[in-house]
């Protein structure tokens, strides 16, 4: 990605985070974090990745955010100075799920290694 695209993505991420913090986040959607923003090379489209604290509400939050897309985009337009405000496309960031799964697998491996060592020591 070019330096300009990186700067635009960073600016959009910062402003979107503030919009979510002050305008959208409430008790029924829980904690939402903007984890990543990717801007297309032509600056026409933006992929926004959201992390939702309450896993059971992910689909609900994504639906609500998509329903508020026009409001979010107009709010963003008032905060950033770009010739064109890109179309916003929201996605759930499930990276933490993979991290938890991998950590769980490591714990299983370490616990089975510990059992094998104890079994081998008992047989000696």
Structure explained in plain terms:
This protein is an alpha+beta fold and 124 residues long. The chain folds into two domains: 3-93, K homology (KH) domain (GMP Synthetase, Chain A, domain 3), CATH 3.30.300; 95-124. The chain contains four helices and three strands, in the order αββααβα. The protein has helices at 3-24, 58-67, 69-79, 95-123, and strands at residues 32-39, 45-52, 87-92. A three-stranded mixed β-sheet has the order 1-2-3, with helices on one face. The radius of gyration is 21 Å and the shape is elongated. The model has no long low-confidence stretch (mean pLDDT 85).
Name of the top-level CATH class of the largest domain: Alpha Beta
CATH topology of the largest domain: GMP Synthetase, Chain A, domain 3
> Main sheet: which strands, in order across?
1-2-3
Name the overall outline: elongated
Count every helix, treating DSSP H or I runs of 4 or more residues as helices.
4
- Radius of gyration computed on alpha carbons: 21 Å
Average predicted confidence as pLDDT: 85
The percentage of residues in β strands lies in 15-25%
Task: Point out poorly predicted stretches.
Answer: none
N-to-C CA distance: 59 Å
Number of strands: 3
